[in-house]
Each structure stands twice: as structure tokens, then as C-alpha cells.
Amino acid sequence: MSETAIKKPRPKHLDLMVIRQPLPAFVSILHRVSGAGLFIMLPVLLWLFGTSLGSPESATAAVECVANPLVKLILFGLLWAYLHHFCAGIRFLFLDMHKGLDLATARMTSWIVLGVSLMLTVLIGARLFLLG
Amino acid sequence: MKSRIVVGAHYGLRDWLAQRVTACVMALFTVVFVIQLLMLPSFTHEAWRAMFAGGFMRFLTFLFWLSLFFHAWIGVRDIFMDYIKPVGIRLALHSIVLLLLIGYAGWAAQILWRL
Q1: What are the pLDDT tens digits along chain A (132 aa)?
Q2: Residue B62 backbone zone (phi > 0: left; psi -120 to 50: alpha; other: beta)
Q3: What gap in Å lies between CA B23 and CA B18, rounded to an integer?
Q4: ipTM of this predicted complex?
Q5: Cα torsion angle, A54, A60, A61, A65, sign
Q6: In 3D, which of B92, B95, B90, B51 has the Cα closest to residue B73?
Q7: Most CB within 10 Å of its CB: which of A22, B46, B62, B108?
Q8: Could you give the CA distance from residue B101 to residue B99 in angstroms, rounded to a whole number?
Q9: Is residue B2 part of a domain?
């Protein structure tokens, strides 16, 4: 009897394009995406770090580079990636300690992670790119 | 007959722990960095350099970069283990990432100890 139950075609809810992701899954995927993005852009970040700390001439080159709107946009994205990875990472550390595992809390902290990282990105981004 | 399945080299827990310890180091650095940045009298090239030239901040910054590279190694390796199935390609990608990160560590040291 159990065999017939197994043989019956059942829907497999594994198609990422079909299933609706719960919010914590969304935060988790963004954690991976932001981490991968930061890794890929590491040479750019190290270059900026090095040139900004080099001679005054090289620091000027760094400032000129950052003045480019496209570079600003990329840095804005990286700023979000760092902040999201930071906030979601802290959430995962709490989950590791079995804190906030119930669905209601997990959903709430997911919203907090998304909201706080976006808010900080706008605040710090505006400070960095519009004013100075 | 009972068949025992031997899995892995038991590096799982060590890497899991390392990823969290390095995360804590980076989080701590981030807080210290933001506080130092806010305490700068003015955002000039000299002040920016002086911020990292102090012994404590230089050490902490280097620790941050090393933690980041170790953290990135575990994270990127996990991504490859999830999505890249052919062993040869995965091995090649792992090698490239590992060598890149070792190079970055040297680069970070050179930036900080040139100050």
C-alpha cells in the first residue's frame, strides 16, 4: 500500500521559478548573492583601499575614480551587499544559537534585516556620494 | 552485514566554526572602523592614512582582511560545492580562488605596512 502511494506522481516543489519563496529564504539567498558579489569585487575594493592609502597623487586618482557615476553605482551596490551580509549574518548567528527559530520571529527578523540594511545603504550612500 | 559509511575528513565543524569566528572579527572591526571614521576631525588624506597607521588599527585591519579572505574561501567553496558538479572544474575553481585569496592577503599586508 505504501508502495502505491510512493508511485503516485506527486508534485515536486523544487522548481525555483514556480514555488513562492518564504521571506527567510529570500534573505538567505540574498546573503549568498551579496557574498558572491563582494568576493568578485575584492580586487576593486583592495585597489581602492591601497590607492586611497598611498601617496597624495594616488589618493587623488582614487577620488577621481570614485567620482565616476558608474563606479559610484557599483560602490552603492557593494555597500548594500556588505550591509545586507552584515545584518543577515548577525541574524544567522542568533539562529545558530537557536534564538528566533519560530516562524513569526523568523519572518520579523527577516523584515528587519532587509529594512535595516536598505535604510543604512541609503543613509551612508547619500552621505558618501551626494555630500562628499 | 553492516556497512559503515565514512564521510568526509571531519573538516565540516572546523570550517563552520571558522566562518563564524571570522564573521565576529569582521563585525567587530566594522564597528571600530565606523567609530574611528566618525571621530575623524576632518576627512582628509592625512587623517585617513593616520587612522590606519596606528599599531592597534593596523593590526585590527590586517586581522579583518585575513578574516575576510578565510571567510570568503569557505563561502565561495560552499557555493562551488552546491552548483559545480564536475570534479575537474570544481577543483580548478577551488585552486584559483585559494591562490587569489593568498595573493590578496599579501596585497593587504603590503598596503598596511607601507604606511
Answers
A1: 455 556 777 766 677 777 788 999 999 999 999 999 999 999 999 999 999 999 999 999 999 999 999 999 999 999 999 999 999 999 999 999 999 999 999 999 999 999 999 999 999 999 877 755
A2: alpha
A3: 8
A4: 0.90
A5: positive
A6: B95
A7: B108
A8: 5
A9: no
CA distances from B84 to A39, A51, B81, B87 (A): 17, 35, 6, 8
Which DSSP category does A131 fall into? Answer: I
User: Cβ separation of A46 and B114 shorter than 8 Å?
Assistant: no
Domain residue ranges in chain A: 23-131
Probe site for chain B from A29, A39, A129 (most B CB atoms < 10 A): A39
B52 touches chain A (CB under 8 A): yes
Whichever domain contains B96, its CATH number is 1.20.1300.10
- Asked whether the beta carbons of A80 and A121 are under 8 A apart, the reply is yes
Cell 592609502, located at residue: A53
Cross-chain residue pair A46–B108, CB shorter than 8 Å: yes
Query: DSSP assignment, residue A17?
Result: T
| Helices then strands, each counted (H, E), chain A | 6, 0
Q: How many domains does the structure of chain B reveal?
A: 1
Does residue B5 lie within any of the structural domains?
Answer: no
E strand or H helix at A97: none
CATH code, residues A23-131: 1.20.1300.10
Chain B's closest residue to A51, CA to CA, is B111
Residue with cell 552621505: A127
